[in-house]
Every structure is written in structure tokens, then in C-alpha cells.
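Hey L., structure's done. Input below.
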Amino acid sequence: MHIHILGICGTFMGGLALLARERGFNVSGSDANVYPPMSDQLADAGIDVMQGYLPEHLQPSPDMVIMGNAMSRGNAAVEYVLNQGLPYISGPQWLAENILVNRWVLAVSGTHGKTTTSSMLAWILEYAGMRPGFLIGGVPGNFGQSAAIGNTPFFVIEADEYDTAFFDKRSKFIHYHPRTLVINNLEFDHADIFADLAAIQTQFHHLIRTVPSEGLLITPYAVPAIEQTLERGCWTHRQSIDGERADWQLAEIAEDGHCFSVKHKQQAAKVSWSLLGRHNVNNALAAIAAAHHVGVTVEHACEALNQFKGVKRRLELRGECRGVKVYDDFAHHPTAIATTLQGLRANIGQQRLIAVLEPRSNTMKMGVHAQTLAESLQQADNVILFQDPQFSWSLDAIKQQLGHKAEIHHQVDDIVLQLAQHSEAGDHIVVMSNGGFGGIHQKILDALTNV
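Output:
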């Protein structure tokens, strides 16, 4: 059976393509934005990716067209599908009907940390010999790919609250029907589709309605936005993490998060790993609690995390040249920016920390986080802001709030030149964007080499 995926290079759709290929489908796809790591994964899997959204990509007609949620009416390929009467389906619905049937789904949701926590959880289960399937919106270092079918009933999925498709405005996670559900946190985001936090809470309430009473809901202790959501109805056993009276406790946490202890009832164990930041400690605790629900001991889970290799684009060290380290971080929200920089600052002490930010998410482009963005960057010694000409708002106010430490550039090459000329041994450059950013990471490393 031949399926064609519109929007195949998105993190979710690219992973879905890998699952379909592994299941034996003939897979092709189209996308307007093709860049690593997803483009590399698809090429390695031998999946044909076509540039743009042309009707001829759908000739001869595939048996099914899977629509990514980036597709909208007016897109040439979408209009062709509708006019020709080709069968089509959303990615989440296709996944539910073809991959998740009769699986024990462990879903990780929340505003932040979904990718990292899902990756930790999948690795813990793998380390425990449980051979899970998984679909994650990033590339876990322990697996080298974002998705796999697995050989057991267990399936780990990053459960995104973004909408499903242009014809299905429910959140993606409504389709997954998890038995184990993690809600990491809950803040306002995705302002392009949600009017306010209450609208997001409604979608999470709908998700909670799908979890069996014999399942498990894992949440941080006493977070108001989550508790308000649960007050609308919860029919599932709950466990709380990281609080004075929580079911799961943390202790002996290093300032930079590189080691900590976990306690649950009579079980206790320690993690010592390469990741940084209190946010990753919390992510780990959620992953350990979820793994415990399917039979993994606390000790075994902590052993697994001692060997966890992180996730691409989550404070990923892309290289070091002349003593200058260049990181790639998938920044999309002020809270995530702040916790990432805080973790690195605690690790590097007084060494210079330079943040290079492209506010690229739809919500950031709309200026929704304009009031909190400057505060999230305070841990950096220097901040370089990239002003995209397509922004509907100016970054001047952010620069003014940050004072002398900040500057604005309108060209990627100007940023590269600035960093190459003024960086010194011991500096840490964190490039923060949820897009390709013009390949800036390698350009910086190349420029440092040639100076």
C-alpha cells in the first residue's frame, strides 16, 4: 500500500513515516522545509522526499494521503487531494488506527519537556529489556532515530496539544488513548490556535477523559493550572512528583542537576548523568514514575538514566573550536529558555555564556511572550537577537530591557562574523531556535576555525 505524507519533515510526521515504512508501507512525502535531523533520518530510511507541494507529487495517486497539521486550505497539494477525491487522513488518526491498536500507550504531555521525558522513558524501558515502540518529536541519542515499532505492547509517545489537522481541530493527543499519562506542566503556548490557557486546559480535560480508571496519571505536585484542569473530572488513579508530600521525591540535587537521588515508598536510587538543569531532573522523575507503572524498579530506571545520551537539539553540543563550545537548543518558550540557561550557568560558573535567539515559534512571532522573554535570558552574559523581517513586532523592547548585554542582527552571516571575531576560549554559545536558523551552528564553528 502506498501512502504519501504531506508535511513529511515535521518531527511528528517524519517519525510517522519511519513507523509506516517499518510496518511495510510504501512511503513517499512532500515538504516545503527540508532540514536535519529529520531529513537525514528519512534519507537513511530510503524514503523519497519531494520539495514543495505540487499536485504531480500525487501522480499516480497513492492509496492514502496523510495530512500534516501544517497543511491548510489553499495549499496546491491539499486542493488537488480534495478535488480528485483522494482518500486522506490525519497523522494522529492514522497512527491510532495502524500502530497504537492493542498497545499499552505511555504518553508524555505538557508545555515543556515532552521530547526529553519521552526519550528518557523509552530508553528506560529499552534498558529494562522491554523493547518499546516509540514516536518522539526529536532524536534520542540512545536510539539515533525518532520512532520505532517495538517488539512488545508498550509504546511511548510524545503527546502534543497542537491541533490535529485543518479538518480536525482537536489536539493530537486525543487520538492516543494512553493507559499511562504524564502531564509535565501546563502554561499558555500555541497562541496561533489557542485563545488562552483555559482553552488549552479544555483539551487536557478531554485527554484525561480518555485514560482508563485502571491506568495512571502522573503530575507534578500542586500545580494550579493542572489542578484546575483535574477539578473538571478525573477518573484515574494519580501519582504526584516533586513536592513535600508527593508520591515521588527528589533529594541531594546538585546545583547544575548533574546528579540527584530519587525516592518512592521503600525504593531509592541515585542518578549521575551528563544532562544539566533542574527541569531535566523533573523530567527524569516523571519518566521514572511512568516506567515504574509498567514494572521497572526505581533502581533499574536510575541505572538506565546514568547511560542516557540526551536528545538532539536539546542543549546539544554541536562542536568546540578554539576552546569555544557551540550548543543547539530547541527553544520555543521563555520558561524553557530560562531553565536551559540556568542549568548551563550552574555548570560553567563564571565562564561567559552567549545566547543567540531566533524567536521562531508561531507564538513568539506573534509577540505573545514579549513581556517575559527578556527575563528568561538574564543568565546569559551576552544576548544576540535575530530580527526576522517577517516578524509582526520589533525586538527593540527586549533589547532595551536587557541593556548593554544585548544586540539585534538582521542577517545570520552578521551574527556569525560577530561571534567569530569576539569569542574567546572558555565561551559557551547557545543557539536557541526551533528551526534550522540558516545552518548557523556549523557556520559559527567554521568561522571560528578560519579566524
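The chain is about 30% helix and 25% strand. The first strand starts at residue 2 and ends at 6.

-- N.
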